[in-house]
Amino acid sequence: MMSLTRTSLEALDRIDPLSQIRALFELPDGVIYMDGNSLGARPKAVTARVTEVVEREWGVGLIRSWNDAAWMEMPGRVGAKIGRLIGAEADSVMAADSTSVNLFKMLGVALSLRPDRNVIVSERGNFPTDLYIAEGLAALLARGHELRLVEPGAVEHAIDERTAVVMLTHVNYHTGAMYDMAAITARAHAMGALALWDLAHSAGAVAVDLAGCAADLAVGCGYKFLNGGPGAPAFLYVAPRHQAAARYPLTGWLGHAAPFAFETSYRPAPGIHRAIVGTPPVISLAALEVGVDIALQAPMEAVRAKSLRQTAVFSELVAQECAGFDLHQITPADPAHRGSQISLAHPHAYEIMQALIARGLIGDFRAPDVLRFGVTPLYLRFADLWDGVQILKSVLQTQEWRDPRFAVRRRVT
Amino acid sequence: MMSLTRTSLEALDRIDPLSQIRALFELPDGVIYMDGNSLGARPKAVTARVTEVVEREWGVGLIRSWNDAAWMEMPGRVGAKIGRLIGAEADSVMAADSTSVNLFKMLGVALSLRPDRNVIVSERGNFPTDLYIAEGLAALLARGHELRLVEPGAVEHAIDERTAVVMLTHVNYHTGAMYDMAAITARAHAMGALALWDLAHSAGAVAVDLAGCAADLAVGCGYKFLNGGPGAPAFLYVAPRHQAAARYPLTGWLGHAAPFAFETSYRPAPGIHRAIVGTPPVISLAALEVGVDIALQAPMEAVRAKSLRQTAVFSELVAQECAGFDLHQITPADPAHRGSQISLAHPHAYEIMQALIARGLIGDFRAPDVLRFGVTPLYLRFADLWDGVQILKSVLQTQEWRDPRFAVRRRVT
């Protein structure tokens, strides 16, 4: 194979069908941003939209904006837009709460739909909040639910006739490995179980077809590939066939059939609307909607094609430029099993990542030993990959990561 | 008693020690805003602060701002500020999630602290989300918990040795009636039960002394008297003596003792920190903090004194100007039992309120028959009360509320 050069990568940028979208984002000078799978970059249009919500809708419209500015419609409107990115049916997605809270709702719904089963199957290396929420719900119910944690390759075998729900993160936060959603969902259904997918590292980054896979339930994150801002509202999905029977553990007034009738007893709203609990976070939803609107401009096939090309290029560049530095890629090489990141293990990953960030290459560290580089096709250039790997190479060659300041542990890593 | 006049009310404005604070809020021309107990007015400084968060902290700082801009500290920092408004001890309040979700957490904590008891006592006329959340939690647990709903005067008698927790909204959203927090908390404790207070209509409006009352748990709202913006994050309180034993039903990664260790099993963070579930909503928290900072500028005694004076004046003006129009005040006349609103029952309350709003007097309708007028001492003037009651009088005299357009039901009322 020919060596990659900056020139050859610049050529890829020139033919990139998504290249114009980068201009919609604010990206600071001197930064190569490969952490969009932790916090997406800021769409430039967010300032104007948030200012409009604050000054006109809130400041002038005041309480009237719940009707006049359609605030009450926002969870469904933004949810429907996200639904288009993940292959969801109409009226099956809501933007609300946090991923963790939504996961609690969806697990509660799953157990309500499978009352005679008591096993939740998941992956030991799943993102911790998924495991913690499941553990907490099982402890709360105190009815002997088992959280059965296995290795990724053992998931299908672990699903049996006691399994209520298989709860997996489609793309693993740590390794970047991606499950075959259709196959695992089919296996769950064959055993009478439900499939609940966490799309935190999928929505906006890889092609997802919830309806086509016959997925049952899903949740996902607004602040990663959807670029909704720090702590943006999350989303949830309930397949239309389950909506009427779904019983939610969180039964708030805005999920009531008639919130403003102020009835004493809870009556669930129709369909997906019962997924709403409290008052929608209007300002945050407005920021999220700007990010989602940009994602809808980019055909998902083009996003996925560029993502796979960029992860392949990054992987190849690391092999070409950084051989001999004890880096070990843990992300699968097979495109069918790879999300939109490259994770590299190294014994001194923490210090190396701090040194990279000081040089302007922003990825993140994931305990205990992973350098994680997210690929965000909407704003990352191929030339950035070259420049980033040159920084990585330089940091490794000079061993500047051994500077004691890079060993200082920060709260958020 | 001498009649009230606009001149006499202008005189009260001139000696109002809080009069300068109004200038910190945006209040549109032609509007008399008496719905700050539903959605508080916008602090002018919100635009600049939110823009700073969006453009500098998110746009330039990107993921680094979790450390560099202290985003991770926001729930605790904003929570501590709210704590000063409600008489909470240090490290006992967090700003997070919605009131409904926080109520679910606090009810779960309460039941975990009283595992041998199975009754939740509340008021039949409590705000519905409180009742729905309790009903949903009881259904989820399926262990025979009873939600015992009584009339306000029967609450103390309803607390018995089976009562795990008394859950009340301190100031009733509908009537504006206020409970004696110290007395009911003492009665709960005497029976071995806990007291959980919803401060939605109290925080920032009336004097609250959680520590002094020995309250056990509390929740409250960020978008009413705290002026945090539409759908602002809510807050919760856990008395220090309960924090170590508190088991939460929602166990998310940011409530873990070591979130970035990515452990497989949940270990609760120390103290109040385990109350956090998912990633904090940074932009919304920043807006809320601006509102809370303003509330902290106003001595609570002055706020409460002005609030009581204004509700008294409004009540008196209605009696003086609108006699004979079938208005019936349901808010207690006794200041010790009155929050910061005046609720007036009328058979055509819905239509009348729509007509008032069209004329620029914004209150709200509460089913089935209440005109609700919130008093927000930080930005409401005594002269506004005169002008507002003149509008009310005119709408009643002219019967313009009979125009069919005012009978059209809007989604949010």
Index terms:
38% helix, Aspartate Aminotransferase, domain 1, alpha/beta, 413 residues, homodimer, four-stranded antiparallel beta sheet, seven-stranded mixed beta sheet
Mind explaining what this structure looks like?
The structure is a homodimer of 413-residue chains. The longest helix of chain A is centred in the C-terminal third of the chain and has 22 residues, at 300-321. In chain A, helix 4 packs parallel to helix 11 (282-297). Helix content of chain A is 38%, strand content 14%. In chain A, the strands form four sheets. Chain A has a seven-stranded mixed β-sheet, sandwiched between helices. Chain A is an alpha/beta fold and 413 residues long. Chain A contains 14 helices and 15 strands. Chain A has two domains: 6-44 and 299-407, Aspartate Aminotransferase, domain 1 (Alpha-Beta Complex), CATH 3.90.1150; 70-297, 3-Layer(aba) Sandwich (Aspartate Aminotransferase, domain 2), CATH 3.40.640.10. Chain A is globular and about 70 Å long. Chains A and B meet through helix 2, helix 3, helix 5, helix 6 and helix 11 of A and helix 2, helix 3, helix 5, helix 6 and helix 11 of B.
